[in-house]
Task: structure prediction
Amino acid sequence: MHQIRFLFFIILTCTQVSFSQLRTVKELDINWKFQKGDFENAFQVDFNDSKWENISVPHDWAIYGPFDKDIDKQDVAIVQNGEKVATEKTGRTGALPHTGSAWYRNKFTLPNYENRKKVILLFEGAMSEPQIYLNGKKVGAWAYGYSYFYFDVSEFIKEGENTLAVKLTNKEFASRWYPGAGLYRKVSVIVKNKESINQWGTFITTPFINKDEAKVNIKTKASIKNGSLITTIFDADGNQISTDKTSIEFGNEFDQNIKVQNPRLWSPETPYLYKAVSQLFVGNDLKDEVSTRFGIRDIKYEANKGFSLNGEVTKFKGVCLHHDLGPLGTAINKAALRRQLTILKDMGCNAIRSSHNMPSFEQLELCDEMGFMFLAESFDEWAKPKVKNGYHRFFNDYAEKDIVNLVQATRNHPSIVMWSSGNEVPDQRGEAGVKRAKWLQDIFHREDPTRPVTVGMDQVKATMESGFGALLDVPGLNYRVHLYEEAYKKFPQGFILGSETASTVSSRGVYKFPVVQEKNKQYEDFQSSSYDLEACSWSNVPDEDFVLQDDKPWVIGEFVWTGFDYLGEPTPYDESWPSRSSYFGISDLAGLPKDRFYLYRSRWNKTDETLHILPHWNWEGREGEITPVFVYTNYDSAELFVNGKSMGIQKKNASTPQNRYRLMWMDVKYEPGNLKVVAFNAEGIPVAEKELKTAGKPYKIILDPDRKTLHADGKDLSYVTVSVVDKNGIPCPKATNQLKFKVTGHGKYRAACNGDATSLEMFHLPTMKLFSGKLVVLVQSTNESGTIELFVTGHGLKSGNLKLNSTD
Ligand code: GAL
Result:
């Protein structure tokens, strides 16, 4: 019987409103009214919002632009970057109109509601400083735009129509990157019995695991007296595998240990997930039912050995990610997140750090399913400011509440293997900061005794002196490759994490000559070179981290800054306009891989071949000039040919970090035609080859979708890579043609992005220029299944069209 009811519950959770007799979860995604500005009476039920914009949530009000250099222009010295004198920084927060106040209003009714029920209003993120009103009355407020939070609104809700009003305010000078704006994550209402399991009241751990059995400990907090709890565990195929009933409560908590025979362990390679269904009874009456997905896995951090997952020493091959999704802004979209993770998986990446704030639930769900370890971070500031209106304004009142919510909401995700209480917080200096570090770490430990806590430290010398670094569970170093050895000796933990590494800068498909390794290099076109030799004053090129990762067993891994470009922080062009997004990404803002992608892939992806040549071979005007060629490959050596002439064999060697990880032909003279590389295996036998050809004039548009079949849910996306080729089908790597997009049928044009950090074209408008011969068009499904057609046209070009499908 229980199983039948459970099935019923599961099937219905797939729709917007999920019913069981016990719980209703209603996602407030449609029928929102939105208006920018401040309105004194907008909280009132009868406020006239008929002229307001109709929108759906998740929503980012700022992503529609226009870009404007005066928005949130900051006159600052970026101390973290070693600056001493304040200068004007345009584009630091993306130059998109995210500042100011705005209101959201939604009228909804709750099916199954009776006034003896308990009602929870849950926000998964609201940017920022939300003030929340229900039926004309203030329900509560929060501060940090990245936090998940909820209120018990039982006393505010009524039968029939309810009116929810939310005011959000983003101050200027509140961020170091584009924070987005609005209700950018889900909002939902949960209706349940008074006697029920608390919000985020389930905590599942796996304290004992061997080959034959695992002990699954389940703590369940519930609002009940003299009740009982049945917890049943199901495997990934839905088979019931064990169950336990208890009526012993400790305070308001049940504590169960359930045995799983022959456990299948969760890991990035085998992301196996179980499910626990908790049923709460009073007598024989079932009062509540909650389903929680979990994994069985063991993590250990040990001196000199480092990090082990399920008993195997494992290094983090990780990337840091900001929360924006490029052309979508910050509005959460699962298809966009899934695409990011698919790209990262192919690179061989096994871990993500949510820099510098709470990850979305969707991202964690995908990491559980697709197999990524997760470092979940909380803050970029504690009590001392980095920016005038940053989190320091809220720290004393909110830090504990924000951490409690982060941990309680996400602790059952097997992907999370570490918490971070902060990134490069100025509190690294001074005694008060040491106390704060301890205080925050203790809160994490109290809420979750199973995972360690780190801080990404940039003031490494100061933290060696003060004891700050010594007290952390995991000492995280941001950059500072020259201090790893000293930190390892001075800190007591016996291992070091590269919590943030590299910060190499490059623009996809852009190459600069002469090819030299340089810091803070700037060019007139506000682009950075893709020879991957340019970094910031505080940062370094990837190879320097690789040396530490490979040679020091006590370095437990790295999180590269960053997996994808993000909006804002356009270093090294913080002072240049137009420049409004980052250059740090391994892939660009459109998700298109830069050359660096293949450098990481050649190390990290152990199953597939990598053989990548750079630069492109279209250098009209450079005939006879030195045009170095680099090859990123998992093979040790290769021979290069220009129009059939050998340029010699290069072999990886330890003479410099670059020579160890790249094959480089520094003296090649450009002549148009054909560039070919032949790679050799360890025995010197040719095993793979790759060729680049000089292209003629752009002739024809080519469309290449990442997915051809979408879900007809009104949210799913196909990312179509658009490029142009010449008459012979050779890709044109420098094309900048202005293209136009049209979508017909059961889909709509959502956005486009070309990865150019200096472009001021808006993503949602159906036209954009190619950048280095490419861009990406996002096609979104509607709620109806059927055929979708994308048309791409450009002056003087043979147009492209593509058929996609969407199904229920
Ligand atoms: C780090 C910081 C990041 C980003 C990065 C750019 O110091 O933690 O948020 O600013 O520098 O290199």
About this structure: The radius of gyration is 27 Å. Residues 80, 356, 423-424, 458, 478, 500, 503, 536, 539, 561, 569 surround beta-D-galactopyranose (CB under 6 Å). The mean pLDDT is 96.
